[in-house]
């Protein structure tokens, strides 16, 4: 039985009879192949990437596992349609907080049609894509006070400036009620466990960055970083094995516009990734500073 | 006595009564302040940068030293005009080979006028700015066979694709006649001394890269890296002190479009710089491989 994914935060969403991805209860994610060759292009990328021996193993794990294509009943009721079959990257999480961040200072690329170029660059300039080299596309957080998910409004997310993006990245790792953040600043209670630490987001982003500094295989145009962490487990933790409690995870998704690198690094993705990394580092630094300030009076015996 | 600089390879050139930079015989470079506030903007940048204690000393040395502004006779005969007074970065070289590389995958930036945006993005798409994250703006090489300077034609330089840019970067460090490179491939005779080595271009670029990964002070829009080396000294070298013979030098120039970083890294410059670094590394690697192949028969006793 296929159903609409509960934790999708961006892209086409299969609800109200529209075409979108589906999931099964075995941890598989079914993404419909779009008619305009983009789907086919994405399938080709997965075929190439999955078998590409030039991609190191530690990099393969940042991509959803690909299981080929399959004809399944489309979510819009139009009958059987070819779908990409992927591992559902949030399957196995109880209450995942998820954020989709589109990386790069442009979503268009050389040799696109004028129509596509104009559509992309308009949105790139209206969002933080040009100014920050990335844009938040959507996110949801498990709200502990309400014991339910809070979802950022798409319209607001796409209207972020630099401060808005920064606030969203703080909110994403906070335990105080996300709906109240206009009056209460996000407390970043989970920042050091989710962004920091030996298995945190930052370490994973830095590993990706290292690869992007030399890889000339692919250009990941209009591709997103999907960050996930297990929110509930952080609150319920205890004992010695806290380290992986947050299960912070970075995955790259959306490859409908990937091109051959042709011997040139993906400077567009790399530049944006470095900018994004700086935002994450800044949050970790601000939390470290706060912790120092809070503990120093005790250490001084006051 | 001010005169037209001999070694300028890009930008407005003061010849035939046009407005352009001038040099004196004391190693000073005089750059006229352009009327449309760009010159003033560049002067402001130099004032800010020169006194900015947040910029480390080892980074300051990648920028021309600034000596304020001065009224001097303009090159176009229009009378006295305010000029930036800078150190002439090629003064002291006998036969400098010089290349100007504009860094970044765009030369426009947020909040420019539509006219300026359109002008820039057209040129960015026509050149390698979008595809490579940098474009060669001009270069000259000391031609040993002719004992004179060879200058790349501006029109050809601006028409480079990825292969053209790669060839130019190889040609720039070759000893065979640059004019013949269509028939004779560049030999990259100086690559390991100019691009490689402890004082070479690559080491300097990597130092700049490290700073750009964290600096959020300035965004260097439409700024160039100027590479210079002393060509003659490489041929005339001998003895033990060869290491600095090439006097390979990296300088950043052209700051008429620098903006405040406002807490965000210059991902546009950084991405382009990383791409440029990869090109330089590739050339060094190809030369290393060739050298291995050439020496291995001897080592094997053949």
TrEMBL record, chains A, B:
Enzyme kind, highest EC tier: transferase
Keyword ATP-binding: yes
UniProt entry keywords in alphabetical sequence: ATP-binding, Kinase, Nucleotide-binding, Transferase
Domain of life (superkingdom): Eukaryota
E.C. numbers: 2.7.1.140, 2.7.1.151
Known catalytic reactions: 1D-myo-inositol 1,3,4,6-tetrakisphosphate + ATP = 1D-myo-inositol 1,3,4,5,6-pentakisphosphate + ADP + H(+); 1D-myo-inositol 1,4,5-trisphosphate + 2 ATP = 1D-myo-inositol 1,3,4,5,6-pentakisphosphate + 2 ADP + 2 H(+)
Family under the similarity heading: Belongs to the inositol phosphokinase (IPK) family.
Role noted for this protein: Inositol phosphate kinase with a broad substrate specificity.
Full protein name: Inositol polyphosphate multikinase
